[in-house]
Design brief:
Length: 547
């Protein structure tokens, strides 16, 4: 029997699934760099970026809207309307999937010619069929979330990534073993997404059949108990009304959800054209490969916590706001920003500081580590952007982050066009960072009009010291270990340097947070359980009476 998940359990399931999916996505990029040359990597990453962007456009925000609509109907005792909403969503997913898959397949050669990314067309055509199923899968995930069965979406995501990873890499090994070259190897890895879509769809269908049997059984028991054969089992709710409700709440969410993918799509699409004056063709292809394979993969790690926090904080703030409990809204909004500062920021900083060792450890060489460092450092503002977007959604102001996103994207385009011809890949990254910073600033300004955020109060200077000192110490430790172990095997040297840097940064950061009184026992008591235990141990020597 399928059981409903509580808010906490549901959040944990989705967060765990997001964590697994992100890491599996990273581990798809690692063998990619070992198996393919720069042109093959650029071809696959171009296809994957466009695919993810189209998928976000087709589904971003819509599952959340469906989830809310389904949960509301069941709460009001109108399951017939919920089922009709579900059918309407599936129809939209099916039509959208056919249109997007066809367009991606047909226009793939035109995209290759425009972007000047070699062999991108075949990878685009190989990944296109995945779009047939994923919009439908997204609608099903929204339905199950509305029924408070989070495990369906979580398990399907993990299955998708496993089959995508194993299937894509396995096919690529076969193709490359036949001597077909990077062009077909990249397409084979891209086709792994199609296998992932089939696996995810199979999982969702299994849950759907089980839930259908459960609903039928419960309905039969209900009918017998009330002895009423005239119970309404269908709804005439117009599809036009359903779609109006879905899109009215989801369009702003789609715009904000696609921000990062749109930035990457813009960068990859015009990279070769915009950097012609900075790189020669081979250097540009190599720089694009490092950026899209290494930097994008590693920079995707720090926002994992923000994704989980964003998903969980919206209903909490929304409930408090609906009750006009602005004190609770302020407390929860300030709390989530503090958690991000205390956890997400140092992770991004550590990966930036130790980028040379981390890149060398994960990939064939540490080339492109400067790109990794800069993009990962910029992820700090990506995290604050995502969390502040979620707070505004909770305040029932979804249009504000959408408008702020448009402003940020416009600045991204302007700065990239101006800086990329002069700085190459770093010009693109600077443009993206400016985009994140501006959106964060505009979001926080809007939030403070309703609630005065109290994130750190007068402790910002102490917090910056607690960030800067460990970063410098970590960089120095990494440099020293690399110098000492220069004669060792490369991977062993990189591993030890990254490990030592992590220990130095992590331990020194926690000590300084406590020693400088940046974090207090009151802060710790408001954090989730695992964080309370760790920080409580660190704080004991500094707050002996309070902890």
């Amino acid at each position: 029997m399928l059981k409903k998940d509580s808010l906490i359990k549901g959040t944990i399931i989705l967060a765990a699934a997001a964590l697994v999916v992100r890491f599996l996505g990273l581990f798809q990029r690692i063998p990619l760099e070992y198996m393919l040359g720069a042109a093959g990597q650029a071809a696959f990453n171009s296809a994957n970026t466009i695919y993810l962007l189209l998928l976000t456009i087709a589904t971003g925000g819509i599952p959340l809207s469906i989830s809310k609509m389904i949960s509301q109907r069941y709460a009001l005792g109108r399951p017939d309307e919920a089922k009709r909403i579900y059918r309407a969503a599936l129809m939209f997913g099916a039509v959208t999937g056919i249109l997007l898959a066809t367009a991606m397949f047909v226009f793939a050669p035109a995209y290759e010619r425009f972007s000047k990314v070699p062999d991108a067309a075949l990878s685009l055509q190989a990944i296109a069929p995945a779009l047939l199923l994923f919009p439908i899968i997204a609608m099903m995930r929204g339905y199950f979330q509305g029924r408070q069965i989070m495990s369906a979406g979580g398990i399907s995501q993990i299955m998708e990534q496993i089959l995508r990873l194993i299937g894509g890499i396995g096919l690529a090994l076969i193709v490359l073993g036949w001597g077909w070259g990077d062009k077909y190897g990249a397409a084979a890895i891209a086709f792994g997404s199609v296998l992932g879509s089939i696996g995810a769809f199979s999982v969702m269908m299994w849950f759907w059949r089980k839930l259908k049997k459960q609903d039928q059984s419960e309905h039969a028991k209900s009918a017998i108990s009330v002895k009423d054969k005239s119970v309404k089992t269908s709804s005439n709710l117009p599809y036009r009304t359903i779609y109006k409700e879905i899109f009215g709440t989801s369009i702003p969410a789609v715009v904000t959800a696609m921000t990062v993918q749109l930035l990457y799509f813009f960068d990859i699409t015009i990279f070769m054209r915009l950097t012609e004056s900075f790189y020669n063709e081979n250097s540009a292809t190599k720089a694009l490969a490092d950026y899209s394979t290494k930097a994008m993969g590693i920079a995707g790690i720090p926002p994992i916590l923000a994704i989980a926090l964003g998903a969980s904080i919206i209903p909490i703030i929304s409930s408090a706001f609906a009750l006009n409990n602005m004190k609770e809204v302020q407390r929860q909004s300030s709390l989530v920003m503090r958690i991000v500062l205390f956890t997400g920021v140092p992770v991004a900083l550590l990966l930036a500081v130790a980028s040379y060792s981390v890149t060398g450890l994960l990939f064939t060489t540490p080339s492109g580590s400067g790109t990794v460092a800069m993009l990962t450092a910029g992820a700090i503002f990506q995290i604050t952007m995502m969390i502040s977007n979620s707070i505004l959604y909770g305040l029932n102001k979804p249009k504000l982050p959408m408008n702020h996103t448009f402003i940020g994207l416009a600045l991204k385009v302007v700065f990239s066009l101006a800086l990329a011809p002069l700085l190459g890949v770093y010009g693109f990254i600077i443009g993206s960072t400016i985009c994140f910073v501006v959106i964060t600033y505009l979001n926080l300004r809007s939030i403070n009009k309703d609630v005065n955020l109290n994130v750190l109060g007068g402790k910002w200077i102490a917090y910056l010291i607690a960030i800067a000192v460990p970063a410098l110490a970590g960089w120095g430790a990494e440099y020293g270990v690399l110098a000492i172990t220069g004669a060792w095997a490369d991977k062993l040297s990189y591993f030890l340097a990254a490990a030592v840097a992590s220990i130095v940064v992590g331990s020194l950061y926690l000590i300084l947070l406590a020693a400088l009184r940046v974090i207090t026992p009151e802060d710790v008591r408001s954090f989730p359980g695992p964080l309370r235990k760790i920080l409580g141990i660190v704080l004991k020597p500094f707050y002996k009476k309070a902890v």
